[in-house]
Amino acid sequence: MSSDYIVAPEPITFLPIVGTGQVFPVRRVYCVGRNYAEHAREMGDDPTRDLPFFFCKDRTCIVPASFSSVTEIPYAVGTEQFEYEVELVVALGAGGQSLTLEQADASVLGYAVGLDMTRRDLQAQAKKKGRPWESGKAFSNSAPISEIMLRKDADLMKEGRISLAVNSVMKQDSNLTHLTWSIAEVIVKLSEQFELHPGDLIMTGTPENVGPVVVGDRINAAVEGVGQIELVVV
User: Fold this and answer.
1) Phi-psi region of 44 (alpha: psi -120 to 50; beta: other; left: phi over 0)
2) Would residue 160 be called left, alpha or beta, if left means φ above 0 and alpha means ψ between -120 and 50 degrees?
3) Which residues pair with 223 in a beta bridge?
4) What does DSSP assign to residue 88?
5) What pLDDT score was predicted for residue 91?
6) Distance CA 179, CA 166 (A)
7) Any transmembrane segments, and where (predicted)?
8) Which end of the chain is more exposed for a tag (fewer CB within 10 A), N or C?
9) pLDDT digits (tens, 9 = 90+) for 173-192
10) What are the pLDDT digits (tens) for 83-93?
């Protein structure tokens, strides 16, 4: 039997590991919805009542972003409401299903700074009709993500500022202490629904004050103890 592909396979997406010559091959990108109380409220939810819920982006959605240079992201097609959401991204070095809190914590390889770019108008239309969110979330260039800081090198404890500015005006400014579900708890809940694997990324949710950008806007997104990325919308 021929091993030739009838079409070319999609290349693997890699993210560099800070301070090494190694790279992280991305398998799957999981996203946590409304994991900061104030963001849940601004989107019309009661954060005290809801368990974390999950959706996915394809690894082809990733735009590798650097701590040391400006990254261009194109304004998304098919939308008039292109919005930012800054997030702490967790990279898994181990996997499994129905993990304990201890196993979930041990599975974390490192961290990155990411943006869950959203076509908010398309997401709103899908939500109104009870349809999946892919059109609003899982589109090309919707996941700018920095290189990965290994856990042993990151100065990230249970707290740390997470922020985003547009054209030097602060828009999102919160702290990881405001996560409704901790990183380990998110991994536990996710592992109850999916078998996790090394190479998976988890975008852990965004704080309040998400909002739109237009062509020419410059975005600075940062997680204290991990790093900062700068992007320009083209």
Assistant:
1) left
2) left
3) 162, 227
4) E
5) 98
6) 23
7) none
8) N
9) 999 999 989 999 999 999 99
10) 999 999 999 99
